[in-house]
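Record 1 of the preview.
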Amino acid sequence: MEHKHKYDAQGKQLCCTPQEEKIYTDANAKKLLEKHTDDDGHNHDHSDDDGHNHGSSDKSTFQMFLPAIISFALLMIAIALDNWLPQSWFTGWVRIVWYVVAYAPVGFPVIKEAFESIRKGDVFSEFLLMSIATIGAFAIGEYPEGVAVMLFYAVGEVFQTLAVTRAKANIKTLLDQRPDEVTILENNQAKTVKAETVNIGNIIQLKPGEKLGLDGELLSETASFNTAALTGESKPDTKTKGETVLAGMINLNTVAQVKVTTAYTDSKLSKILELVQNATAQKAPTELFIRKFAKIYTPIVVFLAIAICLFPMVFVENYEFKTWLYRALVFLVISCPCALVISIPLGYFGGIGAASKNGILFKGSNFLDAIADIKNVVMDKTGTMTEGVFKVQEVVLKSEFNKDEILKMVNALESQSTHPVATAIHQYVGEIDSSIKLENTEEIAGHGLKANVNGKELLVGNFKLMDKFNINYDLDPTTIVYTLIAIAYDGKFAGYITIADSIKEDAQLTIDKLKALGVKTTMLSGDKSTVVKFVADKLGINNAFGDLLPEDKVNKVKEIKAQNETVAFVGDGVNDAPVVALSDVGIAMGGLGSDATIETADVVIQDDKPSKIPMAINIGKQTKKIVWQNIILAFAVKAIVLVLGAGGLATMWEAVFADVGVALLAILNAVRIQRMKF
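->
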């Protein structure tokens, strides 16, 4: 799929500068320049950089450097003949032709790109600046400098291409996690087939060391998997019969059998790959500003260079055209915005790659910027700071009710819910009694479940549900710390079930790190206030509120935002969709548990570890820091050398440093984030 430029209503190009397009194409990373619009249909067909090898488009490092090597050798010979090897033949047209030949391998491709850009409607490109500057140098007899400027520019482009390739490799390791072929069992015979042809219900046989190609249900009694491809966590994860296993997991010891439950294109890994591949389409404000800036800045530079050349004619005595043209050409070389237009996208791309390596998926570089400035982290309790694995502690029922009968009805009703509480009750009671017929089943948000059983109303939920249906009860729910599930049958309070959840092992570390980053913490939960307060006090969370409906959570977040403070909300991304939409950054825990999580959140933490929240904030801060270091470096050096160049104090050699040198320094700084430990 060829990259198509996007334009606004005025015809201005939105997606990439010509140099960006060329470098990302050479790096086989062209898709990363795509800018999706709301109505583009998100067509994710294979492109040249989709992880498949397209052969002829790939160049080796030596092939990329070869034109520069030829030019460098010819330039060194020419400089030696000019200065250190006395002879009489290296003059006149011979000397000019030699320098033209030295210029050709690096110069002609750039001149060609300049014409291509003009043909596409982008007149003032980086390629045009370098072409004018070097051809101008030839025009005034500064042949060595003309060749040298283009040579260093070409070398800089190759290094930029290699940097993009390296950054892309971090994400490509994730894209390579999904195997193309799997072994399925047909009539107890093993058969190797393409993964995309496997149907739901097929049985995959997975040998030790093999990667699973599709999501499924484990049929073997037990199996250990390496989940690093999905979570960044290298510790083996042992699964038992009936548990879900996901594409990208690696079987570690014994042969395992997996029943396919999800189509190839709908697997969690497929969704994650799509998310990562399209993450760079969402641009950070800084990146968008630099792109717009480059499009305005470059034509201004061209006109200023013309002014530097011609304007002094009016007021300078002994005006010499050649001298002022040289200064104008120096000015052009210095002004080239290469350092900015490549190093800044590369910095954000590096940040997305570093996060992906740690099991944190950002949906765009704009969220890297946003999370760096977060002042408040608002979190759900269940499944975020606690395991979300509930266990029934106690069942207290009135003597007038049959305990077994009530529990069977409650179990049947809770089977209609995916809430962890329902799982706990199911594990406690056992198999669902199929003879129980539920009628008019209804889930009441923030309250619980209601249905008719045997013509009588059954209510299962919190005590707000009891209040809503005017059920009288004879206890104070606030005196019990555990989560309470109240039960009413036939208009009477039948009793309650207590359920407890355990705090995640890294929850305390998470809160400590957030405090060290100067981030305030708030816990919002639909669970009862006593439980929420107990967990918050234990962890040292600043504020905690329980017994909240979804709209109550929205109001609490609005209160924080009303103080002009930024908010990240951490939750399951499904039940808390209104709060996720309202927050500046929506972070989803449970990337391995819910398709909707991947769809709704801005950031997905794949292994449910809350300690990845401060890590994500830190990655955002480091990325933003590196981007601004590059902006300041580029502007500072260019400003100094621009002034010197306009005043005749800087030559083409200083100009080369201000352009290519600064670009290389900025790129080296940008790729640094890929090696950082978070």
